[in-house]
Amino acid sequence: MFNHIDGVKKAMIVDFDAHQGNGHERDFLGDERVFILDMYNRLIYPGDNFAKQAIKRKVELNHHTTDQVYLENIRRHLPAVLDEFDPDVVVYNAGTDILEGDRLGNLDITPEGVMERDRLVFTEVRKKRGKPIFMLTSGGYQRNNARVIADSILGLHREKLISNPLEDSHVTSELREQGASLAQGSGGNEGET
Fold this sequence. Notes:
Blueprint: E1 11-15, H1 22-27, E2 34-41, E3 57-61, H2 67-85, E4 89-95, H3 111-127, E5 133-138, H4 145-158, H5 169-185
Parallel strand pairs: 1-2, 1-4, 2-3, 4-5
């Protein structure tokens, strides 16, 4: 990322999946350009103590953590780390294995809690600070996960925290121009041998 995207010198990973994000933690261990905020159930897999060294802000939860405690941790920690590190970009792991009833995540967050979590993250990162954010959906092993994710994304759109590029007239015009350019570039020789 640092070699391929101009202007990105510092990145933050906000990992709100139920599991510790030991993969990216091991990848970025010792890399001062990356700040990792990881909030996870401390009592489940993987429990990778070596990888925990890469976490700059660790929020460990217990089994059956509810919306109130979960969201309060976000309100307390996310603004503080954004102020402390001031990243150029945020990568947000929006795991839904935090949902109540998920036997692997073993937390008790409601669908409304997931939607509020995502709203809090996008409000802090995009609306208040104007930072670009990449939202990655992950985790979640129940039938209702896709619906919860879709409802959350629709809620972010309704609150204008994200936009549909096809609704943006500038982007739509640009796409039309690119399409016309591609059509002209073919020389109108479709079907000729």
